[in-house]
């Protein structure tokens, strides 16, 4: 009996000792949950897939990534309500670059400078990012050295065009006869496009039902060109700022607060010229342009339905354009850079950068932040980014997009590297929504013929000046 | 204004041929709807069809393949496919992704449960309250009623932030209880107003007689008043159901992943990499219409017959 | 015995009688006071359970400091406790007097907690300069927000647009609803099934209606344009003009909600005794006369109820507008509800948006009272 007792005591002691030895290591592996708010669309689903398949936390912790997929059109509503109500539901979120100011000054987005300074891996990531992307997605104030986020899905505007239409022999011949120069056809030729050629293409390809198109009567109205001129969010602004910057105009410069002005800048002579230039294209676009309803979804839809020859559109829609299940022109699409402005010095290009960064929240615990940053490093590592690109995503890391294999992943990738060099972003200040909404209202009044370009820009300039003065951003 | 002084018997005699046999014999109600023939049916058919056409288009779209949906000229005759319906329940989220279950069955279940319970609770609470307002009027009754009505006068957005905050603090967010309580509150004002109208119309004689006979208040309510206003209950239930079924904003903000309802799921078919997934949206909407139509059809008789405010009195 | 005069019929008409608050003062607290006078008890006992005035005082005095000084989580619980206290005193007060109070209490309590209390909270907010996404503590600014809103020309423009659209859409709904009700007012074969067809527009989700109507109106692909093109050969762009866009929205909204009016009017039409029509036929009264003298009095109450509810809903017009035009082109269709959404959610000017909403509420209350006053006056006249 006593023998057994001794044996049991010895066994227990052994177990205790073993546990005591083992405990430190097992206590080090914690369960960390990261809740991230994301938009519901393929790039975020791809991110989840890659995470589930490949992610192993470097620290050995068991990291769970809970993604809340929120429908795109209501994303801002839900994220804004969540943040401003103080519910502290999310640890990370995919944001838009414009919202940085609003949510940073609200105290929600976390400044990551101290983490970056302490981590050579993160520093390498930021060095590898294209400066335009870093400035737009990560910094607030714009172009300062305060860092807040990382690109989840960078995006640019490119030309989608119908190579079957533009390269058609009959059309080429007729175009040459009318305009005395060759209609651009190959992607390289389209890369060199300028607005004059763009306008000519628009005029040339505006066909009514029954007119000849590619040697056969068209079964419906056809249009040569289109780009976004919609009232919602920033759809008109994206186009108008292209023209503005290319003509040499400026917007209110947030980096020069409080000395920069909007009055005299937004309605300068050059600005009015550029806006008139844009408006001159509208008559060649599908008639919905005149309602202010030609947003990015509509341009994409009309293009996929085969009604338009060239569409200037975000890359985010390209995947569905080449997919036969969602596009009637799937095998007829090619991609090139957007047109620029022909000047004596050559073609000037500028565009508004798109895409979404992701950010961390100020209420995260230290361990959550550590895991979140590790996650970002993993996401922005070359193998993951290559996998993302293979699935149709985009990368802003130089080491990735300069890799020779990058252009093979998707037909639009060839425009990526070159286009990144002429991207700018507009204001990130918290007042952005008011500025943007008023601007869009005025623009759509112009496109529907309610007022002319000068009045439109005067209204915009006055409004912005007053608003920014009241907000203390203009002296 | 012409005089309606002719007594009924005179009418029966003079215009005998004009009154159908059954009514003369007293076998059919003397009021209510009149009769009309197939001519009326044809007219109503045309009107109804035109009115229904936009809905019909949505239902047709649900059966169309991608090529047919936005065809110009619009296709009325096409080869139907059930692919959209299949996609409602399981689809791939990205081109190379796997086909996954979308959880739609759960969303549908949530919609049904949440709508039914909130309408039922509103009906119960509201009917009691309406009876109270009608039969036991407090001083300032009108003011109460007006305040109740005015809670419906504001756009929902006004109360979003306080309710959001309330829900998060009390932990009700993402729970069934929270959203049901909210929807019940939305249905209450209309329920109270409608049911009060119905109760006001009942003749008090029967109730007084019952009370004299010794029935308790509860008996009077359940056995006498309630059966007479069944139509009102039906009408209120239908309206309440329709409103709650399609409510979007609060469902978007306050439902969690497990309690998400179909309208929010519908929003997933819009925006992102394609403007609108027409076939998918149409399929979801078609499925979503079915329960409401069934309920309305079932309650239709109650609605029409009973909503005569008790004028069929002898 | 059947009623033999239209007046008698009107008295039976629902919703005109006690359901409508009386024409006399649309008052609030003053009207409440006599109703809820505490049961006479020995004087000097302030802390009775049914002393609702004391509870109200504590509530009103306690709320602003709580909101201003405490972090939101705490102030919420303080306010909730005070609200419950107030509600409890009201309930107890009512209990002592009527069964009616007992019946009414649960509904009122739920409404109070979920609806009225948040409304009061946001009402309180409108006196501060709170912005939900700024970290500053809100400061008390009194009526400043209200002054800003009332003097803002943009607000007046939106109200103007809203008024136009409300009048138009409610009128169209009433007319179409009435005509539809006339159509279905007789029993005919297949009536049940055809009526379901007409009722379905009400049952659609706004998301689907917005997306599909946007498609119907679209000039290149949409059905309306294709139809017009059969005659004119040109795509028809309905939404490019100010009035075109408004017409498009009104059409969609009226299409959805006319069945609501139809149902209510049908209820009235169904209740008109047949012999009245027969007598009129014998007298060879023309159809419009029949309508005016017999039918209208019976349905007047329900018509007014439909008018009331549809007007209230029309002021809140948001979903259809936002989905179809986002308030465009320019600002042609931007209703006040869309504007409130922008100010509250996009610009995050929380306090200003609540001030704006309460001004809207005030407008709607005034209008509703006007209706009810006119409605009641006509009862008294007739």
Widest sheet: strand ordering of chain B: 2-3
Query: Do you know the CATH architecture of the largest domain in chain B?
Result: Orthogonal Bundle
Please summarize the sheet with the most strands of chain A.
5 strands, mixed
- Biggest interchain interface, per-side counts: B-C, 126 and 125 residues
> Which spans of chain A of ≥5 residues are poorly predicted at pLDDT below 50?
18-27
Overall spatial form of chain A: globular
Counting copies of identical and different chains, the oligomeric state is heterotrimer
Question: Which structural class is indicated by helix and strand composition of chain A?
Answer: alpha/beta
| Helix content percent band of chain B | 55-70%
Beta-strand content bin of chain B: under 5%
CATH topology of the largest domain in chain A: D-Maltodextrin-Binding Protein, domain 2
Helix/strand structural class of chain B: mainly alpha
Description:
- The complex is a heterotrimer of chains A (475), B (314) and C (382).
- Chain A has 2 domains: 31-154 and 354-424, D-Maltodextrin-Binding Protein, domain 2, CATH 3.40.190.10; 157-352 and 429-470, D-Maltodextrin-Binding Protein, domain 2 (3-Layer(aba) Sandwich).
- Helices cover 46% and strands 16% of the residues of chain A.
- Chain A is built from 22 helices and 17 strands.
- A 5-stranded mixed beta sheet of chain A has the order 2-1-3-16-4, sandwiched between helices. In chain A, strands 8-11-5-12 form a 4-stranded mixed beta sheet.
- In chain A, a hairpin with a 2-residue loop joins strand 6 (212-213) and strand 7.
- In chain A, helix 12 crosses helix 13 (269-282) and helix 21 (432-447) runs antiparallel to helix 22 (453-470).
- The radius of gyration of chain A is 26 Å and the shape is globular.
- Chain A starts with a helix and ends in a 5-residue tail after the last helix.
- Mean pLDDT of chain A is 90; it is low at 18-27.
- Chain B is an all-alpha fold.
- In chain B, helix 3 (38-62) runs antiparallel to helix 15 (278-306), helix 6 runs parallel beside helix 9 (176-201) and helix 6 (104-135) crosses helix 12.
- Helices cover 66% and strands 3% of the residues of chain B.
- Chain B contains 15 helices and 3 strands.
- In chain C, helix 7 (153-183) crosses helix 11 (242-270), helix 13 (287-315) packs antiparallel against helix 16 and helix 15 runs antiparallel to helix 16 (350-381).
- Mean pLDDT of chain C is 78; it is low at 1-44.
- In chain C, 53% of the residues are buried.
- Chain C folds into 2 domains: 25-125, no CATH class; 150-381, MetI-like (MetI-like fold), CATH 1.10.3720.10.
- With 382 residues, chain C is mainly α.
- Classes of the chains: A alpha/beta (475), B mainly alpha (314), C mainly alpha (382).
- Chains in contact: A-B, A-C, B-C.
- At the B-C interface, helix 1, strand 1, helix 3, helix 6 and helix 7 of B face helix 2, helix 4, helix 5, strand 1 and helix 8 of C.
- Strand 1 of chain B pairs parallel with strand 1 (186-187) of chain C.
